[in-house]
Amino acid sequence: MIQFDDVSKRYPGGHSALNHLSFQVDHNEMVFLTGHSGAGKSTLLKLIMMMERPTSGQVFVDGKNLNRLSSRKIPQHRREVGVVFQNHQLLFDRTVFDNVALPLIIAGFQPRDVGRRVRAALDKVGLLDKEKKSPVTLSGGEQQRVGIARAVVNKPKLLLADEPTGNLDPQLSAEIMHLFEQFNQVGVTVLIATHDLSLIARMPYRVMSLQEGQILHGGVSTL
Ligand code: ADP
Ligand code: ADP
């Protein structure tokens, strides 16, 4: 589902964030990405989302060579990849429903289909009864679940998350990770950047660790 071939990323003026990185993530795998702050985790995720382009090397997502994808095709690509952020990036002046509906509106879905899909996504994260609320009135864990519903509402085959439990206590963090497991169990490939090592130590998934833009261990698929 994801393949990096000798990928390097150097930011203008900065030192290199990724250094000749090669790895792959299989279809339907669930993988954790760890490493200290500055190790290159966010950069790796941004290359998959095409928020950045590699300085050299090639990134493939679901068989597509991203180097060959023109800027015009980026919105389409982004719709196929669900993304969850630590700070949710929710719109607080809109309802839960509207937040989750946003990717569908942008993609041009008909209102009837929007309603059906938004409720299906809210149901999966256990928030069907909160659709009319403002995210401000929800707890941190609930807000993160709204972010997850928004990430999966387009039914992406690939789900990325950057520190999705960063601000949550251990109990809520475990619940959020369990949600990702549930999506993985129905066929979604999941890649989660986290530095919550104690949380993932108890989970049976590959852990790929980065250090200074290179893979320290876990670069090989375990499926
Ligand atoms: P992590 O997510 O593991 O903390 P990042 O991918 O954010 O790591 O950062 C990797 C390295 O690249 C760091 O040295 C960081 O300062 C640098 N970096 C990240 N984004 C930028 C940017 N937009 N411009 C310049 N340097 C950046
Ligand atoms: P994280 O460690 O979670 O990646 P950071 O606080 O390092 O978060 O980075 C936040 C944002 O700033 C990211 O979009 C990252 O790409 C950007 N960034 C990080 N380091 C630099 C840098 N040296 N110069 C410019 N932008 C940077």
UniProtKB/TrEMBL annotation:
It is a peripheral membrane protein. It holds the Pfam family ABC_tran. GO terms for cellular component: plasma membrane. It comes from the Bacteria. It is found in: Cell inner membrane; Cell membrane. One of its GO terms (molecular function) is ATP hydrolysis activity. The keyword Isomerase does not apply. PROSITE patterns: ABC_TRANSPORTER_1, ABC_TRANSPORTER_2. SUPFAM superfamilies: P-loop containing nucleoside triphosphate hydrolases. One of its GO terms (biological process) is cell division. Belongs to the ABC transporter superfamily. Part of the ABC transporter FtsEX involved in cellular division. Important for assembly or stability of the septal ring. This is Cell division ATP-binding protein FtsE. It comes from Litorivivens lipolytica.
